[in-house]
Specification:
548 residues; alpha+beta
Length: 548
């Protein structure tokens, strides 16, 4: 259980977390809008035996399970809740592709299929033309065609090991899965943490790996557009701070810490006439938005376009996102998530629900909000035909970053800038080095957003096979294609859903070859692996005409 002292002082909503009262759910509760809820014990408990066990229903997890079957081995996919497809099936339909031609293999297959989906302007995303439910249908179809058994509502509680090898995963309902190889495809790294693999949470100091964008960084983008006073009584520090602002002296730029970039829900909006009005959550407290209220009213003539450059929210038909220094991101609310137990994550999850639903209700209805902002917000609502079980709200929180494994090869900013070219490529990444805010601080008497970075990536770059496998001394039959070995900065570029699919497929390919050769994951013949990856359409290099 996490100590209350480690949780940041944020808004009234976040203070709920400091109590850490056990979650009081009964067996009769609907899963609804929850991260964690009780499920019946298996009766009787069963042991499933496969060649490759994949834990995590992310796109990387689906790709790993399917690729294993395509290569003739048995696999099983264990999923925490009731859905597969991760964020791609939970509202993030504006997929961050980076350089699209750098995406190969199964990820390319998925994108091509998504692009052919019928686009309804009231119910679709114009970027690729698919709805969240269509994304999940495509992932389920991949699994069904490959005959992958999917075990929903399986929550990992124990990893059994003999020496350096994992032998089985034990789940909360009493079931267990035995396998020769394992894949941790969770957004949190829950499997490898329980397996004793070393990891890091937060931001490294710039000096650790010779980087420039890590650690404490005052934001250059998504920053406050106007000078905003941080005190309840303007220019009166003795009156305290508005909610959501961190007090205290500022660290030097580049100083490492344990802060995690902000999470949100990727709301999927439709036009109001076809949708559900923005709900007012039970725990709503308008004072939580006092800083936003001041920001919106600094300049009565200012224009708010509801786009990335303007804010206060990127709001449109389809996938919506954070935009600006006070938006749908619950800044500071994610810090405890990576290492929290399931009950505590449920409380953090609900705090995010309350914050973001409250934000949208506030923007649409509160009279202190400029009328034109309220009017625009009310043009949209939640979809009736998406996320039906959760009332039109996404079922999954956007966990942008959690644990990151530390292996023999750590991907860094230098890899993203191609100052160092990673050897033994298992796929390319190409998106900018992107992090959302981690805090709001006071600089010269005004509030400033901190933590947002947008570092340019000029060309696609390879990611090393060594970054998805642990050190041999820690585990010899595990792959980590999602929370791979990388710094905060490089992970900001790598952490894209198509890239997770690429690495999930590559991980499964290596797992099958390790089984066939009777070797550890560290001893896989890379040249043989490379040959199979290329055969399956993966793009591994960006220095030959054939790769482009």
């Amino acid at each position: 259980m996490i100590s209350p002292s480690r949780l940041p002082v944020l808004t009234r909503v976040a203070l709920i977390l400091t109590a850490l009262i056990p979650v009081a759910l009964t067996a009769d509760d609907s899963p609804g809008l929850h991260y964690y809820y009780p499920v019946p014990a298996a009766n009787p408990p069963q042991t499933i035996k496969v060649d490759v066990c994949v834990y995590g229903g992310t796109p990387g997890g689906v790709a790993a399970a399917v690729q294993t079957r395509r290569l003739g081995k048995t696999s099983a996919l264990a999923v925490f809740r009731r859905n597969v497809g991760g964020l791609t099936a939970a509202g993030l339909t504006a997929m961050d592709l980076g350089t699209a031609t750098a995406i190969g293999g199964m990820a390319h297959e998925f994108i091509q299929s998504a692009a052919r989906s019928k686009f309804d302007p009231n119910n679709g995303s114009p970027e690729l033309g698919f709805r969240p439910s269509q994304a999940e249908e495509m992932f389920r179809a991949l699994l069904k065609k490959a005959e992958v058994p999917v075990y929903f509502e399986h929550r990992l509680i124990k990893v059994e090991k003999e020496g350096g090898r994992i032998t089985a995963l034990v789940f909360e309902n009493g079931n267990r899965i035995e396998a020769k190889m394992f894949v941790d495809a969770t957004y949190e790294g829950d499997l490898f943490a329980r397996a004793g693999v070393k990891y890091f949470v937060g931001r490294e100091d710039n000096s650790t790996y010779g980087e420039t964008l890590n650690g404490f960084q005052l934001a250059k983008t998504h920053q406050f557009r106007f000078r905003v006073d941080p005190y309840p009584t303007i220019r009166k520090p003795q009156s305290g701070l508005l909610p959501g602002i961190t007090a205290g002296p500022l660290p030097d730029a580049g100083t490492g810490d344990k802060q995690v970039q902000a999470y949100n829900f990727r709301m999927w909006a439709v036009l109001a006439d076809a949708g559900i009005p923005w709900p007012k959550p039970a725990g709503y407290h308008r004072e939580d938005y006092a800083l936003l209220e001041r920001y919106l009213n600094v300049d009565p003539a200012s224009e708010w376009k509801f786009t990335y450059g303007s804010g206060p929210v990127k709001l449109n038909v389809g996938d919506c996102n954070n935009a600006g220094p006070f938006s749908t991101d619950f800044v500071g609310g994610s810090n405890a998530w990576p290492e929290a137990d399931y009950a505590t994550r449920e409380k953090i999850f609900q705090a995010h629900v309350t914050y973001q639903q409250g934000l949208m209700w506030y923007l649409a209805n509160d009279e202190a909000v400029p009328e034109r902002v309220r009017k625009f917000t009310r043009k949209f609502g939640l979809p009736k035909a998406e996320f039906i079980e959760t009332g039109g709200w996404p079922h999954e929180l956007y966990v942008r970053e959690a644990r990151r494994m530390i292996s023999d090869y750590v991907m860094t900013e230098k890899n993203c800038r191609r100052e160092i070219i990673a050897e033994e490529s298992i796929g390319l990444a190409s998106y900018q080095m992107d992090s959302h805010h981690t805090s709001r601080v006071i600089v010269d008497g005004i509030v400033r957003a901190e933590g947002c970075i947008e570092g340019k990536v000029k060309l696609p770059y390879p990611v090393s096979y060594r970054s998805i496998i642990p050190r041999e001394s820690e585990c010899t039959n595990l792959f980590v294609p999602v929370c791979l070995s990388s710094t905060h900065v490089s992970y900001g570029s790598i952490r894209m859903e198509p890239v997770f699919m690429i690495f999930g497929q590559s991980a499964a390919t290596a797992a099958v070859q390790a089984i066939d050769a009777g070797v550890t994951v560290q001893k896989v013949d890379y040249q043989k692996l490379r040959g199979q990856l290329l055969k399956d359409g993966q793009v591994l290099d960006w220095n030959t005409p054939a790769s482009k």
